[in-house]
Each structure stands twice: as C-alpha cells, then as structure tokens.
Write a structure and sequence with these properties.
Elements (H helix, E strand, L loop, with lengths): L1 H44 L13 E7 L2 E16 L2 E4 L5 E6 L8 E2 L4 E5 L2 H38 L11 H7 L2 H26 L2 E3 L4 E6 L6 E2 L6 E5 L2 E8 L19 E8 L2 E12 L10 E8 L34 E18 L3 E2 L3 E5 L5 E4 L2 E6 L2 E5 L7 E3 L12 E4 L9 E3 L1
Length: about 425
Amino acid sequence: MDHHAGEARQGEGIMKPLSRTLTAIGLFLLIVAGGIGVAVLLVKLKTPPKKAEKVNRPTPVKVLVAAESSQPIRVVANGTVVAAQEIVVQPELMGRVVWKNPELVPGGKLKKGEPLLRIDPRDYTAAVEQQLAQLESRRLAFEQERSRRVIAQREWDLFGDAGAPDADPDAEGRSLALREPHLRSAEASLRAAQTAVEQSRIALSRTQIIVPFNALVQSENVDIGQLVSPSAQLARLVGTDAFWVQVSVPVDNLPWIRIPGLTGDDGSPATVSQQIGTSTIERTGKVVRLFGDLDPVGRMARVLVEIPEPLRADDRAEATKGAVRDGASDPRASNLPLLLGAYVRVHIDAGNLEGVIEIPRTAVHEGEIVYVADAEGKLRLKRPSVVWRTEDMLLVRGALKSGDQIIVSQVATALEGMDVRVVSGEPEARSEETSP
C-alpha cells in the first residue's frame, strides 16, 4: 500500500505544474482575443472622415492681345567697311622731289585738285622750249613750201600745156611740178613738231602730281629731295566721298532687298552702326550692288552698301555741348569717322508686311504652337505661319486673329481645353527685325 500511495503522490506532484501552465496559456489567449474584439468594435464604431471635394482651380496666365497691323521689317546683318576709291600714287617720270603737300602723311586729308607733290621741273621746262623752237622752224619751212607751191601752180597754168595742147599730161609729173609732195612733207613735219611740243608740255605737267579726288592718306613713302621713278610707290590714298560696306546676308533675304538694276530702280536704305566702347557711330546709306558669288566661308549672299560722306559729323554731335551721363552712350562719338576695315552692324530696310500679328518668341512652343485663352477661359492650341523672325519677336499670319488673347507666361502642362485665368501683366518688349 505504501508503494501505491507513493505513486499517487508522485502523479499528483506532476499534474499541478501542468495545470498552472495550461491556465496561464488560457488566460493569455483570452486577453488576446479580448483585445482583438475591442479593436474590431472600435473600428466598426469609428465615424469615417468626410472626403474633401476636389476644387478645379484655373491656371493663372498673362496674355498679349493680338492685333493685325502693318509692320516695317529690316534685314539685320554684319559687314566690313572698305574703300570705294583707292589708288597707289606713282610718278609718271623720273626726277627729284622738290615739294610735297604737308597733309601727305598717314591720316592726312586731301582735297580734290590740290597738289600732292612736285618733281624738279627744270629739265622738262627746257624740253618744252626746245620743242617750241623746233616747231617754229617747221612752221617756217611749211610756209615757205606753201609759197613755192603757189608759184609752181602759176607757172604750170601759164606754160605747162603750151607745147602740146592735145596731149594728156602725166599726173605724177604734174604733181612734182606743182611741188605737192614737198608741201605734204613740210606739213607732216609741222604736225610732228606740234605733237612734240604737246608731249613735252604733258611731261612738264606731270612734274606736279594732283590729288584726283577727296582723299585720306593711308600710307606714304616719299620726302623732299628723294629721286623717284615711275616704278616707285609714293603713297596710298582712299576716297572720302563715299565708303562701301560689304554685307553678308542669307540668300533667303535677297527677295526682300531692293537692288538697283535687279529688283528696283533705287537700292534699299540702310543704316550702318559701328560700336566704339559704350558709344556708337551711325551712318546712313543704300544698297548699290549685288556680288556675283557667294561668300566662300559662310555660303551667304553679299551686297554692297554705299555710305556717302562717311567722315562727316552726325547731327547728334551738336546735341552734346556738355557732360555725358554715366553709363550713357557718348554722343560725341558722332564726331568720329566711320573707320575702314571696321566690323559693323547693318540694318537694311526691307519694306512693310501687311496683315501680320507680332508676338514674342517665348509665346511659341515646340517651334510652332501658340497658346490662346478663349472667351470661356479655356486654353486653345494654335499653329500660325511665321513670316518674319527677329531676335525676340515673330510676325505671324493665319490661325490667329485680332483680339485673341495670346498666353505669354509659362504653362507647366498645356492641354487643349484646360481652364485658365487671365491675370494682368505687361507684354514683352519688341526688338529689332532680322530675317524671315
């Protein structure tokens, strides 16, 4: 019995810990289940939040009101100033320089018809005197022979046919008898002497070199006492009555430019600007000629613009008379000449374009699309045709009409029909015309 009682006590000792473990697990599961139940109950009892209503706000935009008009256009290009007249001064005879014009120095200004320099004329003066003496001798011989011719004619009339009234006289014999060959010889000698006198006078006149046109001295290589010959280059002169500007323009621009003899009787007016620091030299002229070939570098057409009186002062120079504002272009630069070889900006008048609308380049998207705000506040996509381009502006036709509100501000994502709202704002400024 004691054995069985021990086994019973041993079994009871084992069951007690197991019972406590099961009780703990049951309590844990009960707590978890209770928590889940409470959470589900709270979710079911929670009031759902109200959904915010979606507000469709129009995109604010700035606009430019389109207006059809007639717009002046200009071809804007670059060019180089070159001389319209240029010569190298060379003497036509040999001699020693005895005088030269004080203005015959680099940068000197010379007037047409004034002496440039003189070569010692004494030898050539003596030659003229010698030829004059020879002329007088030949004139005397001619007069004497003419007198003999008159006497011979009288003798022939009196006695030439007396011995043979029916005979036909020899024509050659008659000419000799009348001294006609002698008279012709004397006359030829007289003309030769007159020619020699004229040549000697021409040589004498060439001892003084005359300025052929109003000129600016580019360079000189002569001084008093120098012995010169026809091969010597004494100076280089350029004309100041006019300069030329060689202008390179796109071939597509040629139909817009009036060229004498090709597309008009008179060339298109042009304005030439040369920048000097903060100042600008400006002169006006006109197109006078089209080159017969393309510029070998840029494959562009070349036209010639003539600038009359390029060294004269501008009217703007008279307006200075005092100090110049800081940062402003100095009008006194108008007193400066247009410089040969200068790289200049040229604006060529190309006429007017009728019925076009001017819009800023920034209003064109993807190269051809213009955004327009219609009367209902919707964005519309338009595709006008560009007929002229400038640095900042375009002239267009088609697809747009006067009164259209062209959107000039940036739109992040432009869609046909999207809502837009026009806000106040100044349109962008216009710039100079360049090309189609």
